[in-house]
Design brief:
Number of strands: 5
Oligomer: single chain
Distance between the termini: 12 Å
Largest sheet: 5 strands, antiparallel
Radius of gyration: 11 Å
Strand order of the largest sheet: 4-3-2-1-5
Helix content: under 10%
């Protein structure tokens, strides 16, 4: 995963309410957790931005 890729949050019983969110990776923070800054678009509140671990994200579409 890299800047520009479209991602979704991995669904789990603990975070089921984030399952419908789609986000764009806008920045990367190197390190063990491979933190990605995601600009999320979702139905209930519009947009959010925040840091997430790469292992908690699923790639939807790569930026080419």
């Amino acid at each position: 995963m890299k800047v520009g890729d479209l991602v979704r949050y991995r669904t789990s019983p603990h975070h089921d309410n984030w399952g419908g969110w789609l986000g764009l990776i806008v920045r990367e923070i190197p390190g063990t957790d491979e933190i990605k800054i995601i600009e999320w678009v979702h139905q209930n509140k519009g947009r959010d931005r925040g840091p997430y671990r790469a292992r908690d994200l699923e790639l939807v579409n790569e930026d080419r």
